[in-house]
Specification:
It is built from 13 helices and twelve strands. With about 350 residues, the protein is of the alpha/beta class. The strands form three sheets. A seven-stranded parallel β-sheet has the order 3-2-1-4-5-6-10, sandwiched between helices. The protein has a three-stranded mixed β-sheet with strand order 7-9-11. The protein is globular.
């Protein structure tokens, strides 16, 4: 396994769901983590329930504030930066486009500019989204070389962030001693402790816990669902190579599930109900629904070939782990202990780190 002990790491977006899992993963691996983000976006939140702030230096701030970003980069003096801070919701972006673009595009500019000005950073992994691609609603999975696009403000902001990353890489980060910069594009990440609004798994969990039948949108829509740790282990494997100075990894990377686990919304709802032990009855939202992609798959052949990365959990196993997380925590177990136990079990089952360190 890669040795992250004592490695200084800055994580933007550490108060969010994905950032929280990343911080606990890094803590488990021995890294010295500083987090920079707005306050937790939901109540409850993984950040609060799992006590994530206890294992790192937490700085509350906004990536739209360049001076604040520059200050935390100087303070943390990181070797590795993971940039996750974002406005992450498609439907929210329709109502709040200015905030979405300011956070997702200019926030990315601010992080990369702060890294450029500070010096000393060896690796930057900038997280965008599978929705950065120009979605043509076709059956073929998208490759890293496919065009950027986006029908809605969220998706197009992530495509624009990819263009920012590519421009900074070619303009500032290609000399021998400059930081190595990669972008990573994951599918729909799922896991315990996600209480976001307008997301399928959190909506299902809230309904099950309340003893109600869930209401879902677009039951036939297909997404690349995967457990959050699948993507995060890929991100760390890329960071390892960049930290070691391997410029061939300073590129764009997809991390998604196996083709057979790109499932429709209705399948997820039925399987989650089965795992929870409740009737698989659900209603369909009958109000106006802004445009969302109906079919989206990722081609991850590049990560498989270069990193030996591949999914560790089947989608059914990932859903069962979510049910186990929420039932355990709902029954009084420590959210921190449950999350760390799932991280340890996951790490024991995969070999991406060994391949990345080879």
């Amino acid at each position: 396994m890669s040795d992250w002990r004592g490695r200084r790491v800055l994580v933007t977006g550490h108060t969010g769901f994905k950032g929280g899992w990343l911080c606990l993963l890094l803590e488990e691996l021995g890294a010295e983590v500083t987090g920079f983000a707005l306050p937790p976006p939901t109540v409850p939140s993984l950040f609060e329930s799992a006590g994530i702030g206890a294992g790192l230096t937490s700085v509350i701030g906004d990536v739209r504030d360049l001076a604040a970003v520059e200050a935390v980069v100087r303070q943390a003096a990181p070797e590795v930066v993971f940039h996750l801070a974002a406005q992450p919701l498609v439907r929210y972006s329709y109502d709040n486009p200015v905030e979405t673009y300011a956070t997702n595009v200019m926030g990315t500019v601010h992080v990369l500019e702060a890294v450029r000005q500070a010096g000393g950073v060896r690796a930057v992994v900038a997280v965008t989204s599978d929705k950065c691609y120009e979605n043509r609603e076709w059956v073929w999975p998208y490759r890293e070389s496919d065009p950027m696009g986006g029908h809605d403000p969220y998706s197009s902001s992530k495509g624009a962030a990819e263009l920012v990353i590519a421009a900074y890489r070619s303009s500032y980060f290609e000399s021998g001693d400059a930081p190595k910069l990669a972008s990573v594009r994951a599918g729909n990440v799922i896991g315990g402790g996600d209480w976001s609004v307008d997301r399928l798994i959190p909506d299902l969990v809230r309904a099950f816990e309340a003893g109600e039948a869930p209401v879902i949108r677009s039951p036939a829509s297909v997404r690349p669902w995967q457990h959050v740790l699948e993507a995060l282990v890929g991100y760390l494997a890329i960071a390892d190579r960049l930290h070691a100075g391997d410029a061939s990894f300073a590129d764009a990377w997809n991390f998604g599930p196996a083709d057979e686990d790109a499932r429709p919304v209705a399948w997820i709802a039925d399987r989650m109900a089965q795992a929870w032990g409740v009737a698989g009855d659900w209603g369909t939202f009958d109000g106006p629904i802004p445009h969302e992609a109906g079919l989206l798959k990722l081609d991850c052949a590049k990560a498989r070939a270069a990193l030996g990365w591949r999914p560790t959990l089947t989608l059914a196993e990932a859903l069962e782990s979510i049910v186990q997380w929420h039932k355990s925590v709902g029954g009084g177990a420590s959210a921190r202990d449950v999350t760390l136990a799932q991280i340890r079990d996951f790490l024991a089952r995969q070999t991406t780190f060994e391949r990345a360190a080879a």
